[in-house]
């Protein structure tokens, strides 16, 4: 469904992605893990057309992407951002937020589509005419997912979709994302700094550091801690909690 | 742990007066603190931060604090004048905030900020203060303290900024540190490194620590004792090492809903809340 070969990207003189290769099969779920500045979000932003200066090959549904994205691309792939406080217009009602993409793409039947999209993410109709500030963080993230789903895309690009949420709400949103992938046959690329979230959600995982993929693993390899690269081992150990001896063994990867 | 009680909180209540009516943020929290590391854990809105802020008298102006007892040694924290507070805050109890980006002064060099914190409570000349500040930066394991001393907060990374914050809060040598989500804005490995620095300093100097966080796992691997808060109440108090023996359904629910690295992709257990938990 998605194939990326030798992707390089720059922010001015800063080389932020270095020869990134990713392959995600249809209905697959691919996880990108890394710390801040590793380039994990930049991969998603490049796919979705938010980065200008890049080289390499991006194939989505066997079609190579050029420098710009057209409407058909956005019907196929939608992005969900990290911060539900920042990604919803504060002065638009949920109804208007959800109707806008339907109108842009001229799909019609916006009334039915809005109701259906809210239903898919487990929000009842009473939310439809509220404003984002009247919703909790978890409900807001559900709206952001509904906005992506309303165009019936086949691919969701998820950029830290739960890192701004409490753990109990995170569990609900992760379950929702798993259910949607099953029911709608979606393909995911999910970015997270949390190894456990990615291990839970994804079949294949890549660990990034300074713009490069340093290691690839399957979910079961990750579960057993079978990682080769010292950087990924360090991340794996860090996910285990506070352990003085482990911390003293940490190396800076600047 | 010595049995000496540093801080005694009995039946602490914090209520905010808002246009939509009173919001009862903290409801009857009680605990005694010795020279130990106490974790306060809860989700957003549980009252964990407001508990910490009430101890330091930092509750917003529309908030009202009542307590049967709020005592630090023999100082009654509930009835201090602003002048008396200045002798306590920073000098005897200090607080590390969440994000160094917002809690450091952006237009003052790091060195000047640390010196300011030190000279507020110690009468020393400029040269001595500078010397102390650089020693302190060295103590929080900043490799090039001279350079960081002359830098502005935007010129250092988040992890470095939080080390600076720790240096600044620890330099007056307080007895109690309240750390409110001190590492939540940092990457995992940096987070652990910063916690290790805090751990060493608190231990070496015999300070008490209240560590406020949403991360139950992290807190329990770091503290001696944990209070779990839900809607303003302490629903459970447990020894950190006995976390897996937690009895309250809320604590168990919080632990169970975390995704695990066991390769299992089935749905996560959802935390079902019961109204009775909020009745204390």
UniProtKB/TrEMBL annotation, chain A:
Keyword Membrane belongs to the record: yes
EC number(s) per entry: 7.4.2.10
Biological process annotations from GO: transmembrane transport
Domain of life the protein comes from: Bacteria
CDD domains (UniProt xref): ABC_NikE_OppD_transporters (cd03257)
Residue ranges of every copy of the ABC transporter domain listed in the record: 2-235
Catalyzed reaction equations: glutathione(out) + ATP + H2O = glutathione(in) + ADP + phosphate + H(+)
GO cellular component annotations of the record: plasma membrane
Xref: InterPro entries: AAA+_ATPase, ABC_transp_ATP-bind, ABC_transporter-like_ATP-bd, ABC_transporter-like_CS, P-loop_NTPase
Entry's Gene Ontology molecular function annotations: ATP binding; ATP hydrolysis activity
Keywords (A to Z) from UniProt: ATP-binding, Cell inner membrane, Cell membrane, Membrane, Nucleotide-binding, Translocase, Transport
Family that this chain belongs to: Belongs to the ABC transporter superfamily. Glutathione importer (TC 3.A.1.5.11) family.
UniProt protein name: Glutathione import ATP-binding protein GsiA
Native species: Thalassospira profundimaris
Upper lineage: Bacteria, Pseudomonadati, Pseudomonadota, Alphaproteobacteria, Rhodospirillales
UniProtKB/TrEMBL annotation, chain B:
InterPro entries documented for this protein: AAA+_ATPase, ABC_Ni/Peptide_Import, ABC_transporter-like_ATP-bd, P-loop_NTPase
GO terms of biological process kind: transmembrane transport
Pfam families named among the record's database cross-references: ABC_tran
Membrane topology: Peripheral membrane protein
Taxonomic superkingdom: Bacteria
A Gene Ontology term for the protein's cellular component: plasma membrane
Major subcellular location class: membrane
Alphabetically ordered keywords of this record: ATP-binding, Cell membrane, Membrane, Nucleotide-binding, Transport
Gene3D superfamilies from the UniProt entry: P-loop containing nucleotide triphosphate hydrolases
Keyword Nucleotidyltransferase: no
Subcellular location as annotated: Cell inner membrane
Matching PROSITE patterns: ABC_TRANSPORTER_2
The family this protein is said to belong to: Belongs to the ABC transporter superfamily.
The protein's name in its UniProt record: Peptide ABC transporter ATP-binding protein
Species of provenance: Thalassospira profundimaris
